[in-house]
Design goal:
The protein is of the alpha/beta class. The protein has one domain: Vaccinia Virus protein VP39 (Rossmann fold), CATH 3.40.50.150. The protein has helices at residues 3-18, 27-39, 54-63, 76-88, 102-105, 125-132, 151-162, and strands at 44-48, 68-73, 95-99, 113-118, 136-144, 167-172, 178-183. The chain has a seven-stranded mixed β-sheet, with helices on both faces. The radius of gyration is 15 Å and the shape is globular. The protein starts with a helix and ends with a strand.
């Protein structure tokens, strides 16, 4: 990552320390997502919950010149900030930001995804997982955030994906905690 990208990431981190409406993943989680994209040679990814674009930047950087990221966000003010941050990082060409509810947008998507990152409303995780089932490639991965930081809210999702016959799921205890679900069939 170049100095500009690192500077933008740092500014989002600093902003989040003083504002209760921004909860970025950790820097290590961002690197993990980027490595997941790179090592799996992902070319089509989806993000549910953009906020100020912190995780979006890591994913877009990993996809630059190799693929596309569709990112869904409900809050138009956050989309504006994320767009500015992506533009500063020269990554806007990699990302297609869609405004609205993930539950309404997912059914309209025709793409097949290599990797999906969920970091939006926790009570929508199970429903979005079901909506995504036919849009995840075999060996595709769904990464859900906040398994450690929001354990009680995320437990229904964890139970659901771990009992799903077509997925293998496990916890990655990094930062807020990722549930990694790999589609086997």
């Amino acid at each position: 990552m170049n100095k500009t990208i690192l500077s933008v990431l740092k500014s989002i981190e600093e902003y989040s320390k003083n504002h209760s409406d921004v909860f970025p993943i950790s820097f290590d989680q961002g690197n993990f997502l980027a490595e997941l994209i790179t090592s799996n040679k992902a070319s089509m990814c989806l993000e549910l919950g953009v906020s100020h674009g912190y995780s979006t930047i890591f994913q877009a950087h990993a996809l630059k010149g190799k693929g596309k990221l569709i990112a869904i966000e409900m809050n138009s003010a956050k989309i504006e900030l994320a767009t500015k941050n992506l533009k500063k990082c020269e990554l806007l060409d990699v990302v297609d930001i869609k405004w609205g509810s993930a539950q309404k947008i997912i059914p309209k998507l025709n793409e097949m995804f290599d990797i999906v990152f969920m970091d939006h409303l926790k009570d929508q995780y199970v429903n979005c997982f079901d909506l995504l089932f036919d849009k995840i490639k075999i060996n595709g991965i769904i990464v859900a955030d906040n398994m450690l930081s929001h354990q009680e809210e995320c437990l229904p999702y964890q139970d659901y994906v771990r009992s799903h016959p077509d997925f293998v799921s496990f916890l990655v205890p990094l930062g807020n905690g990722f549930e990694l679900s790999i589609r086997k069939q």
